Please model this.
Amino acid sequence: MDILNALTVDVEDWYHVCAVGDYLPTEKWGEYENRVNKNSRKILDLLRKYDTRVTFFVLGYVAEKNPDLVRMFRDGGHEIATHGYLHQRLIDITPAEFEADLGRSLDAIGNAADCEIIGYRAPEWTVVRETAWAWDILIENGFKYDSSVVSLTMMGDRAFPRFPFVVRTGGGSIIEFPASTMRCLWEGFPYTGGLPLRMSPFWFTVEGMKKTNRMGYPSLVYMHPWEFDDDPPKTRLPLGRRFMHDYLIKSVPSKIEGLLERFRFGPIKEVLKAHLDSGRRRNDAT
Model:
């Protein structure tokens, strides 16, 4: 089955690392070197080479400082969604703080490029059972989909579905597109983005995506501009954070290109539409 998969970019700069306020405080962000522009352009060049459009989850702070970059995403035919404003994990903030951060990000992105924003992704996949209130807020603010959960015990919740599903609340419904995982015994195993993509053998990622597609579901791949940096800044971070951020970082560009050579990709809004339409066709045929 020729499945359309989702390729996404979390547009954040090298110093937008969660939960390290003592090392990279927000009040000093303006002093750090801007590297998101040149690294994002590398991604755009790669996408043009393979005639592929994707979803850019833009951090509001980045949009405010780099409005031309957001317009480049829009003018390239890509979908623009939001990654929040200050890259705050939902487990670290209140519902009111989340809604304020969300609104600030929409203002920043809207000022940079007048476009419809229907998708959101939380930093570090932090829509979990304890922060499920985020779905209500997203619905209230007109969002159509979220991509913020992972079926994994340590980061998300193993009980979450592994494939796109509909969340229904008292205020309405929203489609959730989880990070791709495969089952390994009783646990989920991520393999299509971030540290899991970097650590996984390339063949493992390819075979996992093929298996997901054979089941009739799209896979979700994600990357960051700082993973395309030829000479990333040396950052003083706690050991665990430094490992998560830097380990095997130079493997990402070639792995993403390899996936572009082997799979069909598109923006999330188009992937979800194709997936839902195919489901309706299967239902009509039975």
